[in-house]
């Protein structure tokens, strides 16, 4: 280990550490003398060739000194041997070829000189080292050097959108598919495919910055890795990508590998390249019927009460107007007739008209008491209609299908039953999370009894088919799937927050460099670009409910309204036939009554005629008798 000059002065520095110290670095007098020699030599050569202007007297006027660049270039060209060694400069003005004293920390923790390194003149380099050194570990034996290979083997697995496996073209050359810009050949058992995605773009950038070559292959058992018993023995081993890394079959794990305590005990992790949490993927709970969507703003009980109120108010209006002494008024055109009070049919028409905000041309209450009730009913109707309109907008325009569960604290997860099925991927960090959390032990035991999923794709397919009710997994993947498929959604808030990192063997010489490359990518905004390109690319989904603008109502939402109108038309047609039949029946009765009335009138007329004839006959008979009596008297 070679440290800086300042580190050599630390009190807790280990024994055997090497460091370099500039010879005479603390001797200011020698450095000042060398500096004066450099300036004198430069101006001597400069004044022999050119004439220079007087320098400015104030520092703010240095930009106006035309000879400044000439003096600077001459100083850089100066080369001499001074009291501190060979003095020369590079293009930036830094000193070249300084003379260093090599120091080592002995058993007393004091830095002692063990050699020198530098240049005695411009071209002659020398190195001198004491063979009898104290090396780290307080030993005299020289440690063996380690040769680091720059051909690294990378293990990963298929996990969209971080890693996506695509078929190898026929010409055997992997080409990226948009939005990816890099594609790596990756061996999958006995065949070679191409790998693209978030992690492959990150791997290409790291390989370019750290300068190493990569060979990518997919995990043999398609697992992230868990610590389990092997072949029924009592000894436990890591499987999946973790096992391949620890067995030396890979140098790096570049995949969405969650950083957790179990893994960190056996491998090294870089700084997290992405922070994420766990979420729950469920199928959307679509509404069973849309024909009665316009009835959803109110509960069935409220609809019944509103309908009952209409008829009760109509009945009370009729009774108030009928029995009130002010229910009748003289008509303006006639003093002999009176306008009838509000009848029951007109009261019903008024009550419905106020509720539905339709014009009331006739049939309004006449009495003051009935009109007070009418005003109260109008206020009630205004509130009901406004509430219905607001809730109708919420239900139809901004309607979002509710998720099947509310989140990780949902009772169906905390108190599981055989009807509700949920799961995660076997041998994954999510499964380890449920093992580690005591309050989630019941959930873990229930998941362990159900169907085992080895990949996220299997679980997502079962979610879509309805065989699985909830899938617990990393939030970036679930949000990606929810944006792709309109029948899926995420439920509740994130939980179990963690970071995703690159895995390396313990004490790997690449850990620091790869970790620094990850930090540099965060600072430069490269990771944010990858998020926008792969994770957030489907955030503006084509699903109607994902848009912030209100959805357009269609026939599906308002079919019930049109059916109600059609029902009204059918009811009107049926009623008109009933009215016609009733009118005919009533007309026949009126005709019979009229015939009977006419017959009675004719009978009465006949009786009157007979009566008149009888009276006439009696009168004539009386006249004849009178005439006969007169004739008898005359004789």
TrEMBL record:
Swiss-Prot/TrEMBL keywords: Calcium, Cell membrane, Disulfide bond, Glycoprotein, Ion channel, Ion transport, Ligand-gated ion channel, Magnesium, Membrane, Metal-binding, Phosphoprotein, Postsynaptic cell membrane, Receptor, Synapse, Transmembrane, Transmembrane helix, Transport, Zinc
Every Ionotropic glutamate receptor L-glutamate and glycine-binding domain range: 183-247
Subcellular location, record wording: Cell membrane; Postsynaptic cell membrane; Postsynaptic density
Pfam families tied to this protein: ANF_receptor, CaM_bdg_C0, Lig_chan, Lig_chan-Glu_bd
Site residues, Crucial to convey clamshell closure to channel opening: 405
Residue ranges annotated for the Ionotropic glutamate receptor C-terminal domain, each copy included: 151-537
Record-level GO BP terms: ionotropic glutamate receptor signaling pathway
InterPro entries: ANF_lig-bd_rcpt, CaM-bd_C0_NMDA_rcpt_NR1, Glu/Gly-bd, Iono_Glu_rcpt_met, Ionotropic_Glu_rcpt, Iontro_rcpt_C, NMDA1-like_ligand-bd, Peripla_BP_I
Transmembrane spans: 302-320, 376-398, 558-582
Disulfide bonds: 486-543
GO MF terms, alphabetically ordered: ligand-gated monoatomic ion channel activity; metal ion binding; signaling receptor activity
Site entry (Interaction with the cone snail toxin Con-ikot-ikot), positions: 435
Main localization of the protein described in the UniProt heading: membrane
GO cellular component: NMDA selective glutamate receptor complex; postsynaptic density; postsynaptic membrane
Residues engaged in binding L-glutamate: 256, 258, 263, 474
Membrane topology value: Multi-pass membrane protein
Subunit structure: Forms a heteromeric NMDA channel with Nmdar2.
Record-linked PANTHER family: IONOTROPIC GLUTAMATE RECEPTOR (PTHR18966)
Function: NMDA receptor subtype of glutamate-gated ion channels with high calcium permeability and voltage-dependent sensitivity to magnesium. Mediated by glycine. This protein plays a key role in synaptic plasticity, synaptogenesis, excitotoxicity, memory acquisition and learning. It mediates neuronal functions in glutamate neurotransmission. Is involved in the cell surface targeting of NMDA receptors. Plays a role in associative learning and in long-term memory consolidation.
UniProt protein name: Glutamate [NMDA] receptor subunit 1
């Amino acid at each position: 280990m070679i440290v800086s000059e300042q580190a050599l002065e630390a009190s807790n520095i280990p024994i055997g550490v090497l460091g370099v110290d500039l010879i005479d670095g603390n001797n200011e007098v020698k450095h000042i003398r060398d500096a004066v020699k450099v300036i004198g030599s430069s101006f001597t050569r400069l004044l022999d060739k050119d004439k220079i202007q007087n320098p400015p007297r104030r520092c703010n006027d240095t930009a106006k000194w035309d000879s400044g660049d000439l003096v600077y270039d001459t100083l850089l060209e100066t080369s001499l041997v001074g009291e501190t060694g060979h003095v020369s400069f590079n293009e930036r003005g830094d000193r070249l070829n300084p003379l260093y004293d090599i120091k080592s920390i002995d058993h007393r923790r004091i830095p002692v000189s063990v050699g020198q390194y530098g240049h005695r003149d411009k071209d002659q380099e020398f190195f001198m080292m004491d063979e009898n050194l104290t090396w780290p570990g307080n030993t005299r034996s020289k440690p063996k050097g380690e040769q680091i290979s720059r051909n690294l083997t990378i293990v990963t697995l298929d996990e969209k959108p971080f890693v996506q496996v695509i078929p190898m073209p026929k010409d055997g050359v992997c080409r990226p598919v948009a939005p990816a810009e890099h594609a790596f050949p990756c061996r999958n058992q006995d065949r070679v495919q191409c790998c693209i995605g978030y992690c492959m773009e990150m791997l290409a950038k790291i390989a370019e910055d750290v300068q190493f070559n990569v060979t990518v292959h997919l995990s043999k058992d398609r697992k992230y890795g868990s610590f389990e018993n092997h072949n029924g023995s009592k000894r436990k081993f890591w499987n999946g990508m973790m096992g391949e890394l620890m067995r030396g079959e890979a140098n790096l794990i570049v995949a969405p590998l969650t950083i957790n305590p179990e893994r960190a005990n056996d491998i090294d992790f870089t700084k997290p390249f992405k922070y994420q949490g766990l979420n729950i993927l469920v199928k959307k709970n679509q509404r069973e019927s849309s024909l009665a969507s316009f009835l959803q703003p109110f509960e069935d009980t409220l609809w019944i009460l509103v309908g009952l109120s209409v008829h009760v108010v109509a009945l009370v209006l009729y009774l108030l107007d009928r029995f009130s002494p002010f229910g009748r008024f003289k008509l303006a055109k006639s003093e002999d007739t009176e306008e009838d009070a509000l009848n029951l049919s007109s009261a019903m028409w008024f009550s419905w008209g106020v509720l539905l905000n339709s014009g009331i041309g006739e049939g309004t209450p006449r009495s003051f008491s009935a009109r007070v009730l009418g005003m109260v009913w109008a206020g009630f109707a205004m509130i009901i209609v406004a509430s219905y309109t607001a809730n109708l907008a919420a239900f139809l325009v901004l309607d979002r299908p509710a998720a099947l569960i509310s989140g990780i604290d949902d009772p169906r997860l905390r108190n599981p039953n055989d009807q509700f099925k949920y799961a995660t991927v076997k041998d994954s960090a999510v499964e380890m999370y449920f093992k580690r959390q005591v309050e989630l032990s019941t959930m873990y035991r229930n998941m362990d009894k159900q169907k085992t999923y080895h990949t996220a794709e299997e679980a997502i397919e079962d979610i879509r088919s309805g065989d699985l009710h909830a899938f617990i997994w990393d939030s970036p993947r679930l949000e990606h799937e929810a944006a792709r498929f309109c029948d899926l959604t995420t439920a509740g808030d994130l939980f179990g927050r963690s970071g995703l990192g690159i895995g390396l063997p313990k004490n790997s010489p690449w850990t620091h460099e790869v970790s620094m490359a990850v930090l540099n990518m965060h600072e430069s905004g490269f990771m944010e670009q990858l998020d926008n390109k792969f994770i957030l690319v489907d955030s503006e989904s084509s699903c109607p409910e994902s848009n912030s603008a209100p959805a357009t109502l269609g026939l599906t939402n308002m079919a019930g309204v049109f059916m109600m109108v059609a029902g009204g038309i059918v009811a009107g047609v049926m009623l008109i036939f009933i009215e016609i039949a009733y009118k005919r029946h009533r007309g026949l009765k009126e005709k019979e009554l009229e015939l009977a009335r006419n017959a009675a009138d004719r009978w009465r007329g006949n009786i009157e005629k007979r009566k008149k004839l009888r009276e006439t006959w009696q009168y004539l008979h009386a006249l004849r008798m009178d005439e006969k009596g007169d004739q008898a008297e005359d004789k």
